[in-house]
Specification:
This protein is an alpha+beta fold. The chain is 39% helix and 11% strand. The strands form two sheets. Strands 1-2 form a two-stranded antiparallel sheet. A two-stranded antiparallel ribbon has the order 3-4. Helix 4 packs antiparallel against helix 5. The radius of gyration is 33 Å and the shape is rod-shaped. The two termini are 42 Å apart. 16% of the residues are buried.
């Protein structure tokens, strides 16, 4: 069952995680948002300047004058005190450039909050997986708002991967278990069907490998056939 953008829909028992992952990441790449799942991605930084009033500063208009009336002595030299303390530091810039704020299709480049892109990815996942899996979309308390999408995606990934490895072993065995050719047409169709299942979990065979296996199976159907 297809969801959006050619990405298959996932039920709790789906066995096509590899295909889902390939299509999902391809879609993000096509709109320039692969960074949302990249655990090495770091937001750009910006300099933040904080200016606070210096408590030792005195306004010249209200500064006290000499306390000795009629004194001809020059006033004591005044120490210049800056009016403000200025401190700067670097912090992550939460506003980023994006060409697809809704993660649906390419649009004009615009500035959006990065946490909004994270929320959009989680919403997209919610539309692509069965409601019985929506508990995987919850972010733990205190989670980094700029990395929630990565965390949620990893939770969904972990749900399917153990089963996926079991399915890979099962389908490898199923492929190797095809050892005889009952009829050329039905055997060829069976090879294609099993190979499609293998492809869905990332252990498929290319066209040459399928053709080679089929050619050798033909020998079990016709005793005079010989392929070196």
């Amino acid at each position: 069952m297809s969801g959006e953008h050619g990405i298959p829909f996932l039920s709790s028992t789906s066995k096509n995680w590899v295909h889902f992952e390939n299509m999902f990441t391809s879609h993000l790449s096509s709109i320039g948002e692969s960074r949302l799942l990249d655990f090495n991605h770091v937001l750009p930084t910006k300099e933040v300047v904080i200016k606070t009033l210096n408590p030792n500063w005195v306004d010249e208009d209200v500064a006290p004058t000499s306390s000795v009336s009629g004194s001809t002595d020059p006033p004591p030299p005044r120490i210049l005190v800056p009016k403000y303390h200025i401190v700067s530091h670097l912090e992550s810039d939460p506003i980023v450039k994006a060409c697809s704020p809704g993660l649906d299709k390419l649009r004009g480049e615009t500035l959006v909050p990065y946490n909004l892109l994270n929320q959009q990815l989680i919403i997209l996942l919610a539309r692509l997986i069965d409601k019985s899996l929506h508990h995987l979309l919850k972010c733990p308390p205190g989670a980094d708002p700029f990395a929630t999408a990565r965390g949620v995606y990893r939770a969904v990934q972990k749900h399917f991967q153990p089963q996926q490895w079991a399915d890979r072993d099962t389908l490898r065995h199923k492929w190797h278990a095809i050892t005889t050719c009952v009829s050329p047409q039905s055997t060829y169709n069976e090879l294609l069907r099993v190979n499609d299942e293998c492809n869905s979990v990332g252990v498929g065979h290319n066209a040459e490998e399928v053709a080679t296996k089929f050619a050798h199976l033909l020998q079990t159907h016709h005793s005079t056939a010989y392929i070196g």
